């Protein structure tokens, strides 16, 4: 009887949290937005075709950060800003079958310029410190600050979406299988180029269209799929847990803050404690327009920012 009452109380407490409805404080509609990244002091950096903009969460104003330097410079759609908000790229296409990439620091200093033939393109890692150069089926990892080749992976017949671990010890490539409900992760040692492990995820990881939506925390790394957020052991590369543990979810986006994990599942924002992986809060978003491509939580965890890239809409919600 006591066990039954405890279960009922837990059920009631969780569902009572789901009644908390988030209402946007401001809605920002603009020209095309291709990237949004949280930086220090509760500010976000927005990437648009006309330059970078700063979104200040305290003043709730958006202002120019860096306008395009030339009319022929276009921002790279895939990887403008690094996850840590310390670097960003501007890509320039020339008429001589050459492409230049300019690497800037967040204080607007030009750090490096890269030039290469347009046919052999470069992909930027979201760490902001590595480039991937393709030549046929060979891929070279280049350190953006030194312009030196770190490692070459030969005969790599996969789609080269990748991320480098925080300790710089390994690299994760990703690819779809012929079955869209399966996703493969290939883990290599970055220092010696040796293959470590192949991971199969029996779920559709739609975020791989842009990059492996992977986050790292201590001895874990996370990857978001349609039905679940998968958490792997960073040392053994084995699955530790799935946060939602069920099918027919719709995990549109997620964000890992200092204390919590936020997952947008259908119209709910599910908040999990990062240490024990327990659900601690459910926040409701009421309509289809609020199913976001990406969510960001401010540094103080007072605000949630939602963005829809195709509609170029940014909404700011107050959490506390």
From TrEMBL:
Keyword Signal: yes
Xref: InterPro entries: WD40/YVTN_repeat-like_dom_sf (IPR015943)
Keywords: Signal
Signal sequence interval, chain numbering: 1-18
UniProt keyword Signal present: yes
Top-rank lineage group of the source organism: Bacteria
Protein name, UniProt field: Uncharacterized protein
Gene source species: Tepiditoga spiralis
């Amino acid at each position: 009887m006591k066990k039954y009452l405890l279960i009922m109380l837990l059920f009631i407490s969780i569902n009572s949290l789901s009644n908390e409805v988030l209402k946007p404080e401001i809605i920002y509609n603009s020209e095309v937005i291709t990237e949004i990244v949280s930086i220090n002091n509760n500010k976000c950096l927005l990437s648009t075709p006309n330059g970078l903009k700063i979104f200040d969460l305290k003043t709730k104003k958006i202002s120019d950060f860096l306008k395009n330097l030339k009319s022929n410079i276009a921002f790279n759609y895939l990887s403008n800003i690094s996850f840590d908000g310390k670097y960003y790229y501007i890509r320039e296409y020339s008429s001589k079958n050459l492409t230049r990439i300019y690497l800037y620091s967040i204080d607007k200093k030009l750090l490096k310029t890269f030039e290469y033939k347009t046919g052999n393109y470069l992909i930027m890692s979201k760490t902001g410190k590595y480039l991937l150069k393709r030549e046929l089926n060979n891929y070279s990892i280049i350190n953006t600050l030194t312009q030196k080749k770190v490692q070459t992976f030969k005969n790599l017949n996969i789609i080269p979406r990748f991320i480098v671990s925080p300790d710089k010890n390994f690299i994760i490539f990703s690819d779809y299988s012929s079955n869209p409900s399966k996703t493969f992760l290939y883990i290599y040692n970055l220092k010696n180029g040796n293959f470590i492990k192949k991971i199969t995820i029996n779920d559709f990881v739609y975020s791989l269209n842009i990059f492996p939506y992977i986050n790292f925390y201590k001895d874990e790394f996370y990857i978001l799929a349609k039905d679940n957020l998968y958490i792997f052991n960073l040392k053994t590369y084995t699955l530790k847990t799935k946060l939602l543990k069920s099918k027919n979810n719709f995990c549109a986006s997620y964000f890992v803050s200092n204390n919590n994990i936020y997952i947008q599942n259908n119209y709910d924002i599910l908040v999990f404690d990062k240490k024990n992986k327990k659900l601690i809060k459910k926040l409701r978003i009421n309509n289809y327009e609020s199913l976001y491509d990406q969510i960001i939580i401010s540094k103080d965890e007072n605000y949630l920012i939602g963005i829809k890239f195709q509609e170029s809409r940014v909404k700011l919600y107050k959490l506390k």
